[in-house]
Write a structure and sequence with these properties.
6-stranded mixed β-sheet; 4-stranded antiparallel β-sheet; 516 residues; alpha+beta; Alpha-Beta Plaits
Length: 516
């Protein structure tokens, strides 16, 4: 094996052509012991160019013992072309991620303000809304750029990316011994990590001596059938004849992982490689941008970043729809929204359950808990000052005194007694249900109770018990009007329980009674 790899270099450092020729004997011996190729089927070629434009520094093809074809390609790198195996900062990939993240941040912020403070957005007008979107977009853009710039996914190695563009059974990276100054060089460590992750072999070609294998290639990686078989222009005659039958070639390809394994590998391995492994090794640090790599290399091998473009487009679409809704909102509707904002929690105070005392103090938080309940006045109710306001009898005595205004005597606060006759008449002539507050044996106590409830904002009436049931003595006080059904009266009684608790009025329970 050492005799087949013997080679006399032309200088103290290997050139790329010398690395190619020194690595080829190593591959022949490696696969001779691994697959036992068929006799006279091994073909070795250098500097192969595919129809798609991909270049392989070396290619070895042969038939395995079972007759199936095998293709292996490798990239050779010398010291003067070390940039091919040193990671670069993938600027285009990073910028597209920054743009997508910035658009998502702008969309999320705009949705938040649209839901929480729509009136404020409308008042910003067109220029203000554009500035708001640009501001949050720039914050997200630069936050991603400076915080995530050192992530592994943005480390770009030319040789590794070129291998991803086409399919081969196995692929190798062969580097001269003097490409990296030390075994712990960060660029060498990253090259090893990406070779392991992508299933690519790695070997070091010394100036003298045996080629040292660092990593064995893995035939089945995380890609499954994502990489396509490329058509090489320079190939052996037996391989050209074999490639005429596409179906046989597809059947003889290495068995790819099943669908479930491919999905799992595409989820687990990137997460482990990009998140778990860097965390365990504590290698998060900001990377400087290497020099000597032009934009042409990036645009050649990087895809169109379709996912980032779709994310940015959808976020932009959301912003555009909400922006149009804001700038076309009329000023009249803005005034209505401002009126609603004056209400605490957007609730009308008059719709709150409960009653407010006439002279209740404002709470410590400055917000009253309610408003006095406004009961409608019956249309057939007459007020004392309106009774007999116009004389329709035509008496002469009244005509003589028509020009003289009668003076009203000064009234003194006395207990009202005018309610009994009218209330009793109502109870005797009407049908329905009432909510009884209490019953009393003393007439004056019943009157005082009714007046107290009325002062609290609860219209009350009093009447004799015999107005409802003949032969009964005593007086009763009921609250509210008459109700057509027992269910309505019971609902009113339940509401009155809360009102009584609010006013600290004592009552065991309300009695719903039916009029005869």
């Amino acid at each position: 094996m050492q005799e087949s790899q013997s080679f006399t270099p032309h200088s103290s450092s290997l050139t790329e052509d010398e690395v190619k020729r020194r690595f080829m004997p190593f591959l022949r011996d490696f696969y001779k012991n691994r697959y036992e190729p068929m006799h006279n089927s091994v073909s070795v070629e250098l500097d192969n160019v595919s129809r798609e434009g991909w270049v392989a520094d070396g290619k070895i093809t042969f038939r395995k013992s079972d007759g199936s074809p095998f293709v292996c390609t490798y990239e050779a790198t010398s010291r003067d072309k070390a940039e091919e195996v040193k990671y670069q900062l993938n600027v285009y990939y990073l910028l597209w991620d920054c743009a997508a993240f910035g658009m998502v941040c702008a969309a999320l912020a705009y949705v938040f303000f649209f839901q929480s403070d729509f009136v404020w957005l409308v008042k910003l007008k067109t220029v203000g809304n554009i500035g708001l979107l640009l501001g949050f977009g720039m914050i997200g853009f630069f936050a991603w750029y400076f915080l995530v710039k050192g992530w592994r996914k943005y480390r770009y190695i030319f040789a590794i990316q070129q291998f991803k563009q086409y399919f081969a059974d196995e692929q190798w990276v062969a580097i001269a011994e003097d490409v990296f100054p030390a075994p712990n060089d960060p660029y060498l460590l990253e090259l090893r990590n990406q070779c392991v992750y992508n299933g690519i072999g790695l070997a070091i070609v010394p100036l003298e001596g045996v080629v040292r294998k660092v990593i064995d290639p893995s035939r089945l990686g995380i890609f499954g059938k994502d990489r396509q078989m490329t058509q090489w222009v320079t190939r052996a005659d037996w391989y050209q004849s074999f490639s005429q039958n596409v179906g046989k070639m597809a059947a003889s390809r290495p068995k790819a992982p099943d669908a479930l394994t491919v999905v799992w590998n595409k989820i687990y391995r990137p997460f482990h490689y990009l998140v778990v492994d860097p965390f365990n090794k504590n290698i998060w640090r900001v990377l400087r941008k290497p020099a000597g790599q032009g934009a042409e290399v990036y645009t050649r091998f990087m895809s169109a970043q379709g996912v980032q473009k779709w994310v940015a487009f959808l976020a932009l679409l959301v912003c555009a729809m909400l922006f149009w809704r804001v700038v076309t909102f009329s000023d009249a509707k803005v005034l209505e929204l401002e009126g609603l904002e004056l209400r605490p929690n957007g609730v009308n105070p008059e719709d709150q359950v409960g009653y407010l005392r006439e002279k209740e103090l404002i709470p410590e938080d400055g917000q009253p808990t309610g408003v006095p309940k406004q009961y409608p006045v019956a249309k057939n109710k007459k007020f004392r000052d309106e009774d007999n306001a116009i004389n329709l009898s035509g008496d002469d005595d009244e005509e003589e005194n028509a020009g003289i205004e009668n003076e009203k005597p000064t009234s003194t606060p006395i207990r009202s007694t005018t309610n009994a006759a009218d209330a009793c008449t109502i109870l005797q002539t009407k049908r329905g249900w009432l909510v009884q507050d209490r019953d009393f044996n003393d007439r004056d106590i019943a009157i005082d109770r009714a007046q107290e409830l009325s002062r609290r904002g609860l219209p009350s009436h009093w009447a004799a018990q015999n107005c409802i049931a003949e032969g009964r003595s005593g007086w009763l006080v009921w609250v509210g009007d008459l109700y057509p059904t027992e269910a309505a009266a019971q609902t009113a009684a339940d509401n009155l329980v809360l009102a009584y608790q609010r006013y600290d009025l004592k009552n065991g329970r309300f009695l719903v009674r039916k009029l005869r």
